[in-house]
UniProtKB/TrEMBL annotation:
Annotated protein name in UniProt: Histone-lysine N-methyltransferase SETMAR
One MF term in the entry's GO annotations: nucleic acid binding
Organism: Plakobranchus ocellatus
Family annotation (PANTHER family): MARINER MOS1 TRANSPOSASE-LIKE PROTEIN
Superkingdom, taxonomy of origin: Eukaryota
Amino acid sequence: MFPSHVVANLTQQWLQCYGWEILPHPAHSLDLAPSDFHLFGPLKRHLGGMAFETEDDLISELRNWFDNLHVDFFRVGINSLLSRWQKCIDLHGDYVEK
């Protein structure tokens, strides 16, 4: 597995190859991170109340959950990101509430 900074650099290079603009934002901007505003809530609700005997059991459940997500789940998350970015721009970088 690669260190996160290596993956980030490779991702930026890949985006630049396709001419995509990389917008700067704070590293821990929860209002703009799809994992925080779209992914973790449903995942937390899914796992709520479950107990796992082993790490492998947890990994298996996570894989099962991700494998069964419909493509629309991701589409909604990406579309939400676009509107959140616009709100952030309109608010001159201030925090974006739901």
